[in-house]
Specification:
By secondary structure, the chain is α+β, with helices and mostly antiparallel strands. The protein contains nine helices and 18 strands.
Amino acid sequence: MFLDKPYGWTSRQAVNAMIRLFTLPGEKRIKAGHAGTLDPLATGMLPILLGEATRYAEMGLNADKSYRVSFDLSYQTDTLDCEGEVVARFDGVVEHSALQPVLDAHSGPIEQVPPAYSAIRIDGKRAHAMARKGEDVIIPARPVTVHAIKLVAFDFPQLTLDVDCSKGTYIRSLARDIGEALAMGGCVTALRRLSTGGWPEAMMVTMEQLQAEPQACVLPLAQWLREMPEVALAEALASRFVKGQRIQLPTEPGQPDPGDQELPVRVFSGEQLLGTGILKSGHHRTVLHPSRILPSAQQRYI
């Protein structure tokens, strides 16, 4: 499901709420996890996976993201957002004409220093825990890609942008860096994730919708894996697949062709998703290598 995360919730709180909602009375606690942390300040798309779908959380963690961010150029805080302590205030005014060159300079592949108040681990410690204790937090710059920055609104000192970016991009850091390039602050006042991995905003569901019709809000795992080509196996081959055996696939029209590469695929038998595998070209036939097998498929075929 794609939860429209409420303001003020941590991502962990959102996951815990889903566990409570989907665990049946008297049953074992359901497994759940999210696919990309959102700060408590942020709202918007938080993919949450249930049960065996949690095995594929990295597809959201590694996906591109889209955000709408508003930040104030007149001040900065220690956390780079409006929930922190003010550490600097800035005088002066930024003209509209000065914005686009700075936005362009922060697009494309860039080196970015994550915020001190973040979940990054330094020598086994969370950066935010170190920062709250007053310890020095030194995080090296890391490469990220800002695919696009669109100016949505500018009414000094408030600036609102839409940002499409790669995994690992910190929007608070981007706001800080844009502000510094303008010789100003860059304190985030509002942040909303619009998309993960290209999934549209319309896919998001609110807590009210979930509480009213929880099952109607859950998508099939196969849909989460939509970008993987599909391989269909007959019953006999399905039994071999779920036992972890490599399979030489018969040549059939429409079968995915890995070429000279390894091709991740989702594997079905009839309507049942068995798991995922890797297609590789063999000497005479394409070979399917199991990579992740779903417990529900093992229960049926083993």
